[in-house]
Design a protein that fits this description.
Strand order of the largest sheet: 1-2
Strand content: 5-15%
Number of helices: 6
Helix content: 40-55%
Number of strands: 4
Distance between the termini: 22 Å
Length: 126
């Protein structure tokens, strides 16, 4: 299940990074990651039972996250941590602006925005 459709992405969010078949595929992928980041609380409660405030944040985060994942697909799928040849080295380290939660890599500002919904709480009673 995903929470944002092509129409929302193109008309309301005014997305321009994703086009054609990429829109639905990336929105669905971002929605699945949001379910992971919210410990499936949206699935459990049902999207329609969330407050309008929560729904709006989730939709916005999904659109931005889908754009981020598409734009950075090569880096996100790269398993290389460090590389060196002829004295030149390259490494990919965790950045201050990236958060990893349950193996989902998300920009810290988007995760902070998603936290405002109260659905990312790690306690059992949230």
């Amino acid at each position: 299940m995903y929470y944002v459709d092509n129409d929302f992405y193109l008309s309301v969010y005014k997305g321009t990074i994703l086009t054609g078949n990429e829109v639905e595929k990336n929105l669905k992928s971002a929605s699945k990651d949001i379910d992971t980041l919210t410990f499936n609380r949206i699935v459990e409660k049902g999207f329609e039972s969330l407050t309008e405030f929560q729904q709006n944040i989730i939709k916005e985060v999904i659109c931005q996250f889908a754009d981020f994942k598409f734009s950075n697909a090569d880096l996100l799928e790269n398993v290389l941590n460090s590389y060196s040849i002829n004295g030149v080295s390259m490494s990919f380290n965790k950045s201050m602006n990236i958060t990893v939660v349950n193996k989902v890599i998300i920009p810290t500002n988007l995760y902070s925005y998603l936290e405002q919904t109260g659905l990312t709480c790690r306690n059992l009673r949230c």
